[in-house]
């Protein structure tokens, strides 16, 4: 099973559009398949040299005929042969500025792959093993943009590798794709960027503000956007569940006076609540730790950590960088924040945020990313 779920052209274009700044000199894809990602790269940066490898000989041959590649070879990237081909590839170690990957995902049950990186052997999923091995070829300051199954970001199997990588790389979940993005494949996929921290701090390869918190271990959280609209103006206390609106977020705590009977958009685990719409202030970063279930209005976002113990850490990180969070609110009428902007802010404090399907902004991600976010943001503000 070679996981031939090739990247649709519009997603490949989105991936290359993430990169800003100088054109990369060398762009590689070590599981190139039919070359969708490299094709998009060659359109965006016509002078970039392309490096293409894949297990599938026929795919590589086809790509060679179609794209002007600097180096192409058929090889098993996870178990490379000690051969001439491998020697040739080793010439690129530490020299590739941009690596684009849609690696094979299939990894049965508990099976894992061993990869050596920085002299340490790591066990991980196949997809993350691809990322890890590709880092050998990354130029200092270069970036890897990988389409990874969401499970990579939350599974125990990959947690250790991500934690180790986060010391040297800023890991950002740029966006998530619809489950239907790939033909015949129902896996939820995240677009994840790995940027070498040293150069991110020097401001060379990334347009994102550098993370000052380089020694933080990554936290994994789920974002839930409330969806209860039109909260009752009157204070109703006969409902079953407390209703939490953005005006109930004050002085770092939640004081809900209204109740409703809806079970829509509920939250029942410890979380950080922030307003989605409205003016942001430091004291609007609120700890939610009620033992009851509550309902969130559509003006509130919940950031749910994986465990209670991580809640305090998360709040601390957010408070430390609340100025950046404030900047993520924008809008001509009422300021608001989108889930994508919140994800980008969280990535800077080493928090990988996953958005479950039901909580996503109503418009499909494809529309968001291709139309350049503005239409989505306008709808969110409305
Ligand atoms: C999901 S497809 C992605 C192809 C291409 N990068 C794209 O975005 O369209 C995964 C590719 O990985 C290749 N592959 C699977 N296992 C591999 C391995 N061990 N080494 C190199 N390539 C592998 C498959 O042949 C397939 O072309």
Structural summary, described in words:
Strand 12 and strand 13 form a beta hairpin. The protein is of the alpha/beta class and about 375 residues long. A seven-stranded mixed sheet has the order 3-2-1-4-7-9-8, sandwiched between helices. It has two domains: about 200 residues, 3-Layer(aba) Sandwich (Rossmann fold); about 160 residues, Adenine-n6-DNA-methyltransferase TaqI, Chain A, domain 2, CATH 3.90.220. The chain has 13 helices and 20 strands. Helices cover about 30% and strands about 25% of the residues. The structure holds S-adenosylmethionine (SAM). The site of S-adenosylmethionine (SAM) has 22 residues, from helix 2.
Shape: elongated
**Beta-strand level of the residues, as a percent range?**
25-35%
Give the CATH topology of the largest domain. Rossmann fold
Provide the gyration radius in Å: 22 Å
Oligomer state equals single chain
End-to-end Cα distance, whole Å, is 46 Å
CATH class of the largest domain: Alpha Beta
Bound small-molecule species: S-adenosylmethionine
Mean pLDDT score: 81
Q: Roughly what percent helix?
A: 25-40%
Provide the CATH architecture of the largest domain.
3-Layer(aba) Sandwich
**Quantity of strands, as a count:** 20
- In total, how many domains does the architecture comprise? 2
Organism: Methylobacterium goesingense
Protein name: tRNA1(Val) A37 N6-methylase TrmN6
Domain Methyltransferase small: 25-118
Keywords: Methyltransferase, S-adenosyl-L-methionine, Transferase
